[in-house]
Design a protein that fits this description.
rod-shaped; Heat Shock Protein 90; alpha+beta; 442 residues; 13 helices
C-alpha cells in the first residue's frame, strides 16, 4: 500500500530537524564513528605538526562530530571535510558529506563546485603524500605512479558518493512527486464518488417523483370513479337492480385496472430502486461505481417506461377514458381535430394523464358539471383542453367524500414542462375550470 502525502507528514516524529528517530540515531552513530576516526588520525597529525597530541585528538573529535548536522547543513560538513583533508583525516566525513550534499535539493552548480573542490583537495594531498613517501624511499615505483595514485584516490573518494547521492535524491523527488499525485488522485476520486452519489440520489428522486405521479394519477382517477359508482350503486340498489349490477361490474373493472397499473409501476420500482450507501471499509472507487450503477438503473427503468417496455396508457384509450367518466354520470363532450397519428410513448402517456387528471378533478370538485374535452393534432405539437361548466350542486364534491391532496395540477405541470411543453390552468369567467396543455410532438 502506498503512503499518501498526509500520512507521510504525520509520520515525521523525529527530534529537531530529523524526520524520524531512526534518522537521528543513524546520524548520531555516523558522527560518533567519524569523531573516533578523526581523533585517531589527529595523533599522527599532531606529531607531524609539532603540537600536543591532546590538541590533535580534540581537534579530530570536534571535526568528526560535525557529521551530526549533515542533513541540516550539508554544505558546512563538506567544507569542514575539505578543510581537514591536508591533515589526512575525515575520510568518512567526506564520503558521507558528499553523498548527503548530492542527495539534497541544491542547485547542481553548488554540488558540482563543492565536489570539484573535494576532488582537487584529495588529489593534491594524495600527490604530495605519495611524493614524500617516494622521496623517503618507502615506495620505489616510477614517476607515473604519482598522477595515477592522485587521480584514482580522488575519484574513488569523490565520484561514488556523489553519483549515489544524485541517484537517491532523484528517486526521493520521484517518490514525493508520486505521493503528491496519489493525494491528488485520491481527492479527485473522492469528488467523483460524491458527485456520483449526488447523481444517483437525483436519479432516485426523479424516479420516485415520476412513480408518485403515476400512482397519483392511477389511484386518484380509478378510485374516484369507484367512489362515484359505489355511491350510485347504493342509491339505485333497491330501485333498479339491473343498473346496480352494471355499476358493480364497472367498479370491479376499474379496481382490476388500477391493480394492474399499480403492479406494473411497483415492479419497476423494485427493479431500479436499490439505494447506494457506503459501508465501512468500502473504497471510494466502489462507491462511485455503485452510485453510477444505481443512476444508470434508474435511468434505464425510466427509459423502459417511456419506450413502452412497461405498458402505459396512450391516446387510443382516450375514448375509453371518457366513456368511464360518462358511465359515472358525467356529461362529457369529446372532440378531436386534425388527423390522428402516432407519437412518442412519453408524449402520448403525458397527454393521456393530463386529460385523466383533469377529469378526476371534475369528479372531485365539480361533480355533475358538463365537461368538454378537446384534442388537436397539429403539425409539430399536440394540444389538449379540458373545460367544465359550473357544477349544478356546489356541495356535491364534499358529499361524495372525495379527498384532494392538491398535487394533481402540480403533477400535470411537471409532466408537460419536462417534455418542453406549456401548461395553463385556472377558473373560467363562467365559473368553471379549464386545463390546457401543448406538448411538442417530437
Amino acid at each position: 500500500m502506498t503512503t499518501t502525502g498526509e500520512e507521510h507528514a504525520r509520520a515525521l516524529t523525529g527530534p529537531w530537524w530529523w524526520a524520524r528517530r531512526r534518522s537521528a540515531v543513524l546520524d548520531g552513530g555516523l558522527a560518533l564513528l567519524s569523531a573516533v576516526e578523526c581523533a585517531a588520525e589527529g595523533v599522527p597529525f599532531a606529531r607531524e605538526a609539532g603540537i600536543p597530541v591532546s590538541v590533535g585528538v580534540v581537534f579530530g573529535l570536534i571535526a568528526g562530530a560535525v557529521l551530526l548536522v549533515r542533513r541540516k547543513w550539508p554544505i558546512a560538513v563538506v567544507l569542514v571535510a575539505i578543510a581537514v583533508t591536508p591533515a589526512e583525516m575525515g575520510f568518512l566525513m567526506g564520503v558521507v558529506g558528499l553523498y548527503t550534499l548530492a542527495s539534497c535539493e541544491l542547485p547542481r552548480r553548488v554540488i558540482g563546485a563543492l565536489s570539484g573542490m573535494s576532488l582537487l583537495g584529495t588529489a593534491v594531498v594524495t600527490f604530495v603524500r605519495v611524493r614524500q613517501d617516494m622521496a623517503r624511499g618507502d615506495l620505489t615505483l616510477g614517476d607515473w605512479f604519482l598522477p595515477f595514485a592522485a587521480v584514482t584516490t580522488s575519484l574513488g573518494l569523490t565520484a561514488p558518493p556523489v553519483l549515489l547521492g544524485l541517484y537517491v535524491g532523484a528517486r526521493r523527488r520521484l517518490m514525493e512527486s508520486l505521493r503528491e499525485r496519489a493525494d491528488s488522485l485520491e481527492r479527485e476520486l473522492q469528488l467523483l464518488a460524491e458527485r456520483a452519489e449526488e447523481r444517483a440520489e437525483w436519479a432516485r428522486n426523479e424516479e420516485r417523483t415520476r412513480i408518485a405521479r403515476e400512482m397519483h394519477d392511477v389511484v386518484a382517477h380509478r378510485v374516484s370513479l369507484m367512489v362515484v359508482h359505489a355511491a350510485a350503486l347504493q342509491a339505485v340498489a333497491r330501485k333498479d337492480p339491473e343498473k346496480a349490477v352494471r355499476n358493480a361490474a364497472l367498479v370491479g373493472d376499474m379496481g382490476r385496472q388500477a391493480l394492474t397499473e399499480l403492479r406494473e409501476m411497483l415492479g419497476v420500482l423494485r427493479a431500479g430502486g436499490d439505494a447506494v450507501r457506503r459501508p465501512s471499509g468500502v473504497p471510494l472507487a466502489a462507491v462511485g461505481e455503485a452510485a453510477e450503477a444505481a443512476a444508470s438503473r434508474a435511468a434505464e427503468s425510466r427509459a423502459a417506461v417511456e419506450a413502452g417496455a412497461v405498458e402505459g396508457p396512450c391516446l387510443s384509450e382516450l375514448e375509453e377514458l371518457v366513456g368511464q367518466s360518462a358511465a359515472a354520470g358525467m356529461v362529457v363532450d369529446l372532440s378531436v381535430e386534425g388527423e390522428a397519428r402516432s407519437y412518442p410513448a412519453e408524449v402520448e402517456q403525458t397527454a393521456y394523464r393530463v386529460v385523466q387528471e383533469a377529469l378526476t378533478n371534475v369528479h372531485k370538485h365539480a361533480a355533475g358539471a358538463k365537461t368538454y374535452v378537446r384534442l388537436a393534432h397539429r403539425v409539430s405539437e399536440i394540444a389538449m383542453q379540458v373545460e367544465n361548466e359550473p357544477p349544478p350542486e356546489p356541495a356535491s364534491a364534499s358529499a361524495a367524500g372525495l379527498p384532494s391532496g392538491g398535487n394533481g395540477l402540480v403533477g400535470m405541470r411537471e409532466r408537460v414542462v419536462a417534455l418542453g411543453g406549456v401548461f395553463v390552468s385556472g377558473p373560467t369567467d363562467a365559473g368553471g375550470f379549464r386545463v390546457s396543455a401543448v406538448i411538442p410532438a417530437v
